[in-house]
Amino acid sequence: MNGEKIDMSESMRKGIYILPNLFTTGSLFAGFYGMVATMNGDFKTAALWVLISSIFDGLDGKVARLTGTSSKFGVEYDSLADVVAFGVAPGLLMYKWALQPFGRLGWLAAFLFVVCGALRLARFNVQVNTVENKRFVGLPIPAAASMVSATVLLFYHFGWPSSYKKVAILALIYLLAFLMVSSFRYYSFKDPELIKRQPFAMLVLAVLLLIVIAAEPVVMLFVIFFCYTFSGIIGFFMSLPRRRRLEKALHHRHAKDDH
């Protein structure tokens, strides 16, 4: 513990990297402004600012990796900003927008989302050097917060009645909270192959996707985050047969060794 404190203080004396931490600050600002909009009753704006925060959050890590400016300070600052921008901000949004009529049960449900998000971040920080880089263990908290924002925007887009949102948000909270602390694996988009040369068809597909998003941005954002949220569950069940075969093979090998 003392060694970590010494390393951190030495790093601070040498200085910190400005660019990636500015993006992290932008993410924190967007999350805080989302809370301000929520308190003012402007829930649509609050949802948009949480989405903007997720964009900044995605950029800070990529900028740090591309420029070689990753640091222990940046990792810790990013986690603290994520708790505010993707835990407290969407939790407050859900409570004020849909759960306040439930009273104590409402704010406890919103707190469940916040605490599961914080636990998810703590587990990620502990496992960051021991798990596969291409996969996240548990739903990332920015994706969970973006799913909340996309749901709010979808309700405004279609003008659905307020009675629907109470049921939808309650179900969504418990689902997202469970997925964040689960062991389901999610694609991290950190694969170096993504930025290398790709077939021409991939460019065509990307352009078509952008056109569809531009035509119906609210609906498509919801579909994208919905698909990503359930991708971990689908991947888990699709891998079950392969995992069972591996377990049987290992069991058969151990049985042979015993004889």
TrEMBL record:
It catalyses: a CDP-1,2-diacyl-sn-glycerol + L-serine = a 1,2-diacyl-sn-glycero-3-phospho-L-serine + CMP + H(+). Keywords: Lipid biosynthesis, Lipid metabolism, Membrane, Phospholipid biosynthesis, Phospholipid metabolism, Transferase, Transmembrane, Transmembrane helix. The chain crosses the membrane at residues 16-37, 105-124, 136-156, 168-187, 199-215, 221-240. It is a multi-pass membrane protein. One of its GO terms (molecular function) is CDP-diacylglycerol-serine O-phosphatidyltransferase activity. It is found in: Endomembrane system. Its EC number is 2.7.8.8. One of its GO terms (cellular component) is membrane. InterPro entries: CDP-alcohol_PTase-I (IPR050324), CDP-diaglyc--ser_O-PTrfase (IPR004533), CDP-OH_P_trans (IPR000462), CDP-OH_PTrfase_TM_dom (IPR043130), CDP_ALCOHOL_P_TRANSF_CS (IPR048254). It holds the Pfam family CDP-OH_P_transf. One of its GO terms (biological process) is phospholipid biosynthetic process. PANTHER family: CDP-DIACYLGLYCEROL--GLYCEROL-3-PHOSPHATE 3-PHOSPHATIDYLTRANSFERASE-RELATED, CDP-DIACYLGLYCEROL--SERINE O-PHOSPHATIDYLTRANSFERASE. Belongs to the CDP-alcohol phosphatidyltransferase class-I family. This is CDP-diacylglycerol--serine O-phosphatidyltransferase. The lineage of its organism: Bacteria, Pseudomonadati, Thermodesulfobacteriota, Desulfuromonadia, Geobacterales. The gene is pssA.
